[in-house]
Amino acid sequence: MAVSGSSRRRSRDDVAETALHLLDEYGLPDLTMRHLATALGVQPSALYWHFPNKQALLAAVSERILAPMAEIPSDRTSMHEAVRVVGTRMRECLLAHRDGSELVSSSLALGLVSSPVRPHLLDAARVHGVPDALAEVAAEAVMHFVVGFTFHEQQRLAADQLGLLTETDASTLEGDRVGAPVVGDFAEALTMIAHGLEVSIAQYREVEKIKRDEFSRTAG
């Protein structure tokens, strides 16, 4: 990225957007405040007008990486399909940026960004009369699975770029590229999470039915 010679005051969005570009170009280890300040043509101290520390900056970058999650339509899809759609979209968001999974994982772990999965599964759950508690557990499972799976994908992609993988290992990376069909282990594991949620929902409804039947007998 070319160094800007402009001395105009940078906005918070300018800083976060430039940080995202640096992430894509150089990777997370080289995304330093000094490097970012140089790219913006400002002194490093100027960055702290917008972000109190580097973790706050990385959280803003994480939010940009996850922004396409907001574009998932809110419709009356099944809970099973909601798990698959949300999980797949999150994977795409993370793979779209170099070291995206590692950066977002850190921001999530520190509580600096909210789960991008939770609101979508809660919305779907409420449409289908599923308790929030079940949707919360499913959201945590999907989020952690996607972050972990994608982190391994990106580590392998980085190793491939450095020529550290065997030809056989490198040939398996095609499904890790952005835009590649979501097949294989990722899709199967996401489906397993969705099936597990369906079983939990069925058990919940059976227990509720037993409670209603028992109440009717005692009330009668």
Taking pLDDT < 50 over at least 5 consecutive residues as the criterion, the unreliable ranges are 1-7, 178-182
Order of helices and strands: HHHHHHHHHH
The major sheet is characterized as: none
Overall geometry comes to elongated
Share in helix: 55-70%
The secondary-structure class comes to: mainly alpha
Q: Determine the strand fraction and express it as a percent band.
A: under 5%
What oligomeric assembly is this protein in? single chain
Work out the radius of gyration.
22 Å
Total strands = 0
N-end to C-end Cα span: 76 Å
By DSSP (H or I, 4+ residues per run), the number of helices equals: 10
The pLDDT mean sits at 87
Write a structural description.
This protein has 220 residues and is mainly α. The protein has helices at 12-26, 33-40, 44-47, 54-66, 79-95, 100-109, 118-127, 132-161, 167-171, 184-219. α6 packs antiparallel against α8. The longest helix is centred in the C-terminal third of the chain and has 36 residues, at 184-219. The chain is elongated, with a radius of gyration of 22 Å. Mean pLDDT is 87; it is low at 1-7 and 178-182.
Keywords:
220 residues, 10 helices, 67% helix, 0% strand, elongated
Quick summary of this structure?
The chain is an all-alpha fold.
Topology of this structure?
Layout: H1 12-26, H2 33-40, H3 44-47, H4 54-66, H5 79-95, H6 100-109, H7 118-127, H8 132-161, H9 167-171, H10 184-219
Helix pairs in contact: 1-4, 4-6, 5-7, 5-8, 5-10, 6-8, 7-8, 8-10
